[in-house]
Design goal:
Layout: H1 14-30, H2 36-43, H3 62-81, E1 94-97, H4 101-126, H5 131-134, H6 136-143, H7 147-154, H8 159-166, E2 170-176, E3 179-185, H9 187-194, E4 198-206, E5 212-216, E6 233-235, H10 241-250, E7 259-260, E8 264-266, E9 285-287, H11 289-294, H12 298-308, H13 310-319, E10 338-340, H14 341-348, E11 358-359, E12 363-367, E13 373-376, E14 380-381, H15 389-405, H16 410-413, E15 422-427, E16 433-439, E17 443-451, H17 461-464, H18 466-469, H19 471-482, H20 488-491, H21 500-505, E18 511-513, H22 516-520, E19 528-530
Parallel strand pairs: 8-19
Antiparallel strand pairs: 1-12, 2-3, 4-5, 4-17, 6-10, 7-9, 9-18, 11-14, 12-13, 15-16, 16-17
Helix pairs in contact: 1-2, 4-19, 6-9, 7-8, 10-12, 10-13, 10-15
Length: 539
């Protein structure tokens, strides 16, 4: 142990510290640990301090650590009510978390690699007409949200005076993917700089227990404290469709039921007319459920919701662990509901956990200085299956198709991953939110990518779709995992083989084309108009 840590502190008492060091070196030479020559030469080297301040924003998993801190404060407050006065900072508590540090490091490396590249493409796509350069109304709106603006407003200044003050340039530090830079800039310049940044929420959990293995709440904890895993609710887009399909199967709709891809205008919904992102004319095409889900066909999802019933879908979502309130609207089929990243991870776990959703958790146990257990945190998962074994197997096969030849096929084609993977991509209206959910036999991985400002989306679907903006965060991470033998139990795990009866139920032509007479009486240039009549709904 170090002797007299204050008395020999090299910062406070450098001379005494130097004397003490040389005394130790003499003792080492005397006991034959080093030679006299080594002692003499090392003793001539002056002391040099290399201080590194601890920064809470740095290090591994800062968003996760902050969430653990919040959970521990809640725990400590409950303990106080029971007469136990624990301080999470000074009581010497040992907190055992679920995080896998190596998986987390790989996830952070994958995030930096992908998000830094995507940011360049994103800014380039807007060019000189970017909203952070041209949209004065939006810029002013965001400036008025800053603490600086609010303080000046409270002091009684007029808006024009405040804005004049906020235009004054001074030396400040701005950060981007190349690091921090000291520049001459105003508060307004700073707002414009940071409003263009893409952000992310990414999470991997054990599908059986909900234990969190990786947690990325954003791209930079120092500058973006808002946690997109635990705090942010965003529209989930097409990642909600599997819930719709699950409900359909549960009410008895066979998976080889065909639904027309034709675009329909619903006159009792103010002319609402959901369309598909593809350019191909689909007026005469009829999709099996597997084909429609794997290719994320919007028009079919709405028709499946209509046939299943909105109430049935909402009940299915709740049984699968969705606790956020969802809209009781037909647009629910397209994922207009807002859900948390960690909530969605728990929901999807039901597909690889015998129909039982899990609640992601971060802390395993808390002990005192003597290693006595003060708290054990048990996994929380649903007691009842949300759907039948048959439905679970069908849905897993459908989501495998998404990876093999659907919207997420770049998992195989671009990233060359050969692991057992099922999944679903998601992209919301105006390309505001990009999602990808990956299911493996052992893990559920959920990724969201978008901007903190809901007002700004990707310029194009090709750049902002889930397969391009969100999927790579999983794919790059899994590539790293595949190279490490210690993760073989996870990366080489295989899904159980589906029952023969399930495979027979899915054995049908993926697409059927309308017959000659149907095509004859259909006008591809004219939308069919009808009423939306959801089973057990009042539309």
């Amino acid at each position: 142990m170090l002797k007299a840590t204050y008395g020999y502190n090299p910062r406070v008492f450098p001379e005494k510290s130097l004397e003490r060091r040389n005394l130790v070196l003499s003792s080492m030479a005397k006991n034959d640990f080093i030679s006299e020559e080594e002692k003499d030469s090392i003793s001539e080297i002056p002391l040099k301090l290399n201080y590194k301040d601890f920064n809470y924003s740095d290090g591994l998993a800062p968003y996760f650590r902050e969430e653990v801190r919040k959970k521990m404060l809640q725990w400590a407050n409950k303990q106080k009510e029971e007469g136990n006065n624990y301080n999470i900072y000074t009581s010497g508590l040992k907190i055992y978390t679920t995080l896998d540090s190596k998986m987390q490091r790989f996830a952070e490396e994958a995030m930096v690699l992908h998000m830094s590249s995507l940011q360049k493409k994103f800014e380039k796509s807007y060019g000189k007409n970017a909203p952070w350069l041209k949209d004065k109304k939006l810029i002013d709106k965001l400036v008025k949200r800053t603490n600086t603006y609010k303080k000046l407003k409270e002091s009684g200044l007029e808006d024009s005076q405040i804005m004049d003050s906020l235009r004054q340039k001074r030396t400040m530090t701005l950060s981007d993917w190349e690091g921090e830079k000291s520049v001459e800039a105003s508060v307004i310049d700073s707002v414009q700089h940071y409003m263009k940044f893409l952000n992310t929420g990414s999470l991997a959990v054990d599908s059986k227990t909900g234990a969190v293995k990786t947690w990325i709440g954003g791209v930079n904890f120092k500058y973006f404290k808002y946690d997109h895993v635990a705090q942010s609710k965003r529209q989930v887009g097409s990642t909600f469709k599997p819930i719709v399909y699950t409900a359909a199967l549960e009410v008895g709709i066979p998976p080889c039921t065909y639904f027309s891809a034709e675009e329909v205008e619903y006159d009792n919904l103010k002319g609402w007319s959901p369309s598909n992102s593809g350019k191909k004319d689909e007026t005469y095409l009829n999709y099996s459920m597997e084909m429609a889900l794997s290719n994320s066909v919007n028009t079919v999802a709405v028709k499946i919701l209509e046939k299943t019933g909105i109430e049935n879908v909402l009940a299915q979502a709740k049984n699968m662990g969705v606790f956020s309130e969802l809209p009781k609207q037909p647009s629910l089929a397209l994922g207009t509901g807002e859900i948390y990243v960690n909530e969605l991870a728990g929901v999807y776990a039901s597909y690889v956990n015998n129909g039982k959703a899990v609640l992601p958790y971060l802390i395993e146990k808390v002990t005192n200085q003597k290693d006595s257990i003060l708290a054990d945190f048990e996994p929380k998962r649903a007691k009842k299956s949300a759907f039948s074994k048959e439905t679970g197997q069908i849905m897993l096969e459908m989501m495998k198709s998404t990876i093999e030849h659907g919207t997420a096929s770049r998992i195989r084609n671009t990233y060359k991953l050969r692991n057992d993977i099922a999944g679903k991509t998601g992209t919301t209206q105006n390309n505001k939110d990009a999602w990808f959910v990956a299911l493996t036999p052992k893990l559920v991985h959920v990724t969201w990518v978008g901007l903190d400002n809901h007002e700004i989306g990707f310029r194009s679907t090709s750049l902002g779709q889930g397969a391009n903006a969100a999927l790579p965060l999983f794919a790059l991470w899994m590539q790293k995992m595949n190279k490490e033998p210690e993760f073989n139990a996870i990366t080489r795990a295989r899904f159980p083989k589906a029952d023969a009866s399930v495979l027979r139920m899915l054995d049908c032509e993926p697409i059927k084309r309308d017959g000659f007479f149907k095509r004859l009486f259909k006008n591809p240039n004219k939308k069919r108009v009808k009423k939306f009549r959801s089973k057990n709904s009042h539309s």
